[in-house]
Amino acid sequence: QVQLVESGGGLVQAGGSLRLSCVASTNIFSIVRMGWYRQAPGKQRELVATITGLGSTNYADSVKGRFTISRDNAKKSVYLQMTSLKPEDTAVYYCNYYNGARDYWGQGTQVTVSS
């Protein structure tokens, strides 16, 4: 079983920055794909960014140039640096661990961007 614990969410004004963190409790981390997803009220969960074990990244078009995903395999952690935040970025952000067979999810952290 993989447990993911997110932190770093909060309330920020438009144009501000936040950094989300996720720590995984698992012995298999460095080779798996990690990611961040978000879900706004009344909407489906959507991809924000992913990063493979080799460090290849993928971003949703809506966050390209503003968000950066990174990982620290020694700390079994993945991060999401968010800059130039917009009100439409408001959502619950979820950490994702995908080992090629199944997904694991964190409990989510709320990000609210005020205009």
Put simply, the count of helices is 0
Strand % is over 45%
Task: Give a quick account of the main beta sheet: strands, pairing sense, barrel closure.
Answer: 7 strands, mixed
Distance between the termini: 40 Å
DSSP, total strands = 11
The arrangement of helices and strands along the chain is EEEEEEEEEEE
Low-confidence segments: none
Average pLDDT, to the nearest integer?
97
Roughly how much helix do the residues carry, as a percent range?
under 10%
**Given the helix and strand composition, which structural class is it?**
mainly beta
Molecular shape = globular
Rg over CA atoms: 13 Å
Structural descriptors:
115 residues, mainly beta, seven-stranded mixed beta sheet, four-stranded antiparallel beta sheet
SSE topology sketch:
Layout: E1 3-7, E2 10-13, E3 18-25, E4 33-39, E5 46-51, E6 57-59, E7 67-72, E8 77-82, E9 91-98, E10 103-105, E11 109-114
Parallel strand pairs: 2-11
Antiparallel strand pairs: 1-3, 3-8, 4-5, 4-9, 5-6, 7-8, 9-10, 9-11
Task: Write up what this structure looks like.
The protein has 115 residues and is mainly β. It is 0% helix and 54% strand. It contains no helices and eleven strands. The chain has strands spanning 3-7, 10-13, 18-25, 33-39, 46-51, 57-59, 67-72, 77-82, 91-98, 103-105, 109-114. The strands form two sheets. Strands 2, 4, 5, 6, 9, 10 and 11 form a seven-stranded mixed sheet that branches. The chain has a four-stranded antiparallel sheet with strand order 1-3-8-7, with no helix packed on it. β9 and β10 (103-105) form a beta hairpin. It is globular. The mean pLDDT is 97.
